[in-house]
Structure formats: C-alpha cells, structure tokens
Amino acid sequence: MGWIELKPEGGGPIQAWRADPSDKPRGGVVVIQEIFGVNAHIRAVADNFASQGYLAIAPAVFDHVEKGFDVGYDPDSRARGMAVVGKVDFQQVLRDVAAAIDVAKEAGKVGIVGYCFGGSVAWEAAANLPALSAAVGYYGGRVIASKALQPKAPTMLHFGERDQHIPLAGVKEVAALHPNVPVYIYPADHGFNCDHRASYDAPSAALAWTRTLDFFRQHLG
Prior knowledge:
Blueprint: E1 2-6, E2 14-19, E3 27-32, H1 40-51, E4 54-59, H2 75-85, H3 90-104, E5 110-115, H4 117-128, E6 134-138, E7 155-160, H5 168-177, E8 183-186, H6 202-219
Parallel strand pairs: 3-4, 3-5, 5-6, 6-7, 7-8
Antiparallel strand pairs: 1-2, 2-4
Helix pairs in contact: 3-4
C-alpha cells in the first residue's frame, strides 16, 4: 500500500493510492473519491478491495486544483471540498481515470467504483472509457442529469432513499431508462457507505459491498 504517481494526458502528474493484494490479483479496480479527497476513508476502501484480491488504484483527481487535498467530514471541510470540485475539469478527471486504468490493467480486467462525486465519475467513465469491464456508482449526484448516457460496460448503481441531494424520482427515471443496469435503493441517506460520516448506515453499506463484490467477481474475475 502506498502512493504512486500517474501521468494523465492533458494535465500534470497526480498522486494515486495503490493497494496490492497479497496473492495473484483477480483484476483491477479504480476507486474514485468523494469531494473530500483521497482521504483515510477512500484509502481504506482501496485497501478493502485489495484484501478481496484486486489491485486497487485511487487517483487523486483534485491534485490538478489543490495538491494533496485530504479533508474530513465537518462543515468546513465540506465547504472546502465543494469549492475544489467547482474548479475541477470533468473531462480531465476522465483522463485521470484512464491513466489509473493503465496501471490497474496489469492485474487483468479493470472495473471502476466511485462514491458521491466519484459515483458520477464512474457513470461517465462507463459510457466513455471502453477499457472498463465493469462500473459501480454510489450516490452520484450527476447521474440523473446525465441519465441519457449509455454505459458501454456492465454497470451497477447504489442510492439512498433518504438522500436529500438526489431526488428519488430521478433515481427511478434512471432505472426505467436503463433496465439492464441494476439500480439499488437503500433505506439510508447520502454517504451511507462511509463509516467516517454521521450518515453511515452499516446494514446498507454491508449489503451494497456484497453486491459490488459479487458484480466485480462476475465481470472481472
């Protein structure tokens, strides 16, 4: 486990957290952050995927705006994260993801998983990056606005029914438009997967984790 450097097209080098499995990898997973950076939680998520046999790469996509951005979940940190994400070039993020895929593919087929901001990235990447073999998005706020996109890779989405940021009606529209995309709705709030947040919901997080792992094992190995 440790930091590596990626050299994406279109921007300067960025850091990425790399977590290697203890045995031969079953595939690669690109992990995309929330608005809080590649912080302790996202690094732990990558480490968890490594513990399940995947080479996990979490690119620090905010490095183009603020190097080493890493904050917690208090109101001030949220405000800082929102300020940074407002300056992020989404197309550059996709190029960052492509650079992470290039590393992860040494382990075989590559999937992507993203949370919050990263959930939107995972959805866009599934539609735009043919090198992906699977995509999973957690509570991506931009998914509804970009619901017309057509994923090129098998894709799964997770949402919370109590999420005040993402209208449930919009989630149902996405599900109706994409009958081949499993869209799961949990009795939980935004950020339910993150055990560093007040909105953490352990049963929902555990169920989503199981579904995500099963999905990756089906499509990556």
